[in-house]
Design brief:
Elements lengths: L2 H13 L3 H14 L4 H13 L3 H14 L4 H13 L3 H14 L6 H10 L4 H14 L4 H13 L3 H14 L4 H13 L3 H14 L4 H13 L3 H7 L2 H4 L1 E3 L3 H16 L13 E10 L6 H20 L15 E16 L9 E8 L2 H4 L9 E3 L15 E3 L6 E5 L4 E3 L8 E10 L3
Antiparallel strand pairs: 1-7, 2-3, 3-9, 4-7, 4-9, 5-6, 5-8
Helix pairs in contact: 1-2, 1-3, 2-3, 3-4, 3-5, 4-5, 5-6, 5-7, 6-7, 7-8, 8-9, 9-10, 9-11, 10-11, 11-12, 11-13, 12-13, 13-14, 16-17
């Protein structure tokens, strides 16, 4: 086979999930023709499929140095940059594609993504509009355009774009979420409530659907709906520290302090201020962390069983049969706090407190360092529900609540850091 044919064959293997076989095919060919551009582009495609992004970037740069007109190399390089969140570089690569091939499939869509995350929102909107002109049937493109217009504050146009997405894909989850948010932002609250109801019907138990339903119900004065969705007595769990918790504390603090802080904590994507969160912490058997896993698993199981008793609640009756707990560290220094937020990818969320500064423990400083559950963020015009919970942290305290419950913490002043373990309960992967 000629190099171009070998590359096409490798691309078909990658598309069918046979990445290793594709790699072997290319390595055999490259042993005979180590500098062939088509084979190297195929190799980079295999690297991308295997998430070897840095190696792919090096290979593609080398190809482009030899063949600046290799449009596929520019496109794949853009994809590699985008995968590593190098969005400015990705945009440059996609523009290089358009200079050489203005009709290259999919490039306007990916350019829109790169520009959106490079904070060039007008440029991103223009790229998405061009992508839609070429592929008007794709709901995802209309949704992405709506998202950018939403960020630009052009809510009327965003609403129209989300509606176009839903015409093409009526159950599009993100479009339903953002349409309700855009309607709330423009105080079209009754329409937002109708969209949220539709979202709950299409995706029972989905976190953002329930969050939108809650706050549109607050905005429209549907108090009975709000009371049911924010039923703290039924849905909120709290466990006071036990002897076991006290014994675990020092070892768990060491685990968090030794963990790597999460990179790319973009101000717009994360809610921790004057502090940091860690990468997900992996459970280790026969350690303080392993004992914590058993403790949390028991408490979560106990609480979820209690929640499912009773009437057909839109959250409690749609819990997954199998679930797992994901945990990470949260460390805040003096002045630190959490902005209002919820956890869209989970169905239940909680916090396990490890180290609490004495200033937070002092009732006279209330609510410094405390956690408040219930109030929305700016997406919901900071709407206040009729009932909220304000909780004073203490070492070993565990709290648990549905992931659609918004929550925040208040700033505190102390020389001691506040350390806790937030966790999500998510559907178990197969």
């Amino acid at each position: 086979m000629k190099p171009r044919e070998i590359r096409r064959r490798s691309e078909a293997l990658v598309a069918s999930g046979e990445i290793q076989q594709a790699g072997r095919l290319l390595e055999q060919a490259l042993a005979l023709q180590p500098f062939d551009s088509d084979l190297l582009i195929g190799k980079a495609n295999v690297m991308l499929a295997g998430r070897q992004y840095r190696q792919a970037i090096e290979t593609l740069r080398d190809v482009i140095r030899r063949r600046p007109d290799a449009v596929d190399a520019h496109f794949l390089l853009g994809n590699a940059y985008r995968a590593t969140r190098m969005f400015h570089e990705a945009a440059s690569s996609y523009r290089a594609v358009l200079e050489r091939s203005p009709t290259y499939p999919g490039v306007h869509h990916f350019l829109g993504i790169a520009l959106q995350y490079s904070d060039d929102l007008p440029g991103s909107a223009a790229a998405y509009r061009e992508a839609i002109r070429r592929k008007p049937e794709l709901a995802l493109l209309h949704f992405r355009l709506g998202s950018v217009l939403h960020l630009l504050g052009r809510h009327g146009e965003a609403i129209a774009a989300y509606q176009e997405a839903l015409k093409r894909e009526p159950a599009h989850q993100q479009a339903l979420t953002n349409l309700a948010l855009a309607l709330i932002a423009t105080e079209r609250d009754d329409e937002a409530f109708e969209v949220a109801q539709r979202h709950v019907r299409e995706h029972p138990g989905q976190t953002m659907a329930l969050a939108n339903l809650t706050f549109s119900a607050i905005a429209t004065g549907r108090d009975e709906v709000v009371r049911r969705l924010l039923d703290f007595e039924r849905l909120f769990g709290q466990w006071s520290p036990t002897v076991d918790d006290q014994a675990l504390g020092p070892g768990l603090v060491e685990v968090v302090e030794a963990a790597s802080p999460l990179k790319n904590t973009n101000q717009n994507l994360y809610t921790t201020r004057k502090g940091f969160i860690t990468n997900e912490l992996k459970w280790t058997a026969n350690s303080a962390f392993g004992k914590l896993h058993d403790l949390l698993e028991h408490r979560v199981s106990q609480h979820l069983q209690a929640c499912t008793r009773g009437d057909d609640h839109p959250w409690a009756t749609h819990l997954p049969e199998r679930w797992q707990i994901k945990v990470w560290g949260n460390v805040q220094q003096s002045g630190g706090y959490e902005d209002p937020h919820c956890h869209p990818r989970a169905f239940a969320s909680g916090v396990y407190y490890l180290q609490v500064p004495p200033e937070i423990a002092n009732e006279e400083n209330r609510p410094a360092g405390w956690i408040e559950i219930g109030r929305g963020d700016d997406s919901y015009r900071y709407l206040d529900p009729p009932e909220k919970r304000l909780i004073q942290p203490s070492p070993g305290l565990t709290i648990l609540f549905p992931s659609y419950f918004f929550h925040r913490t208040f700033p505190f002043e102390s020389e001691t850091r506040r350390i806790c373990l937030p966790f999500d309960v998510v559907a178990a992967s197969n």
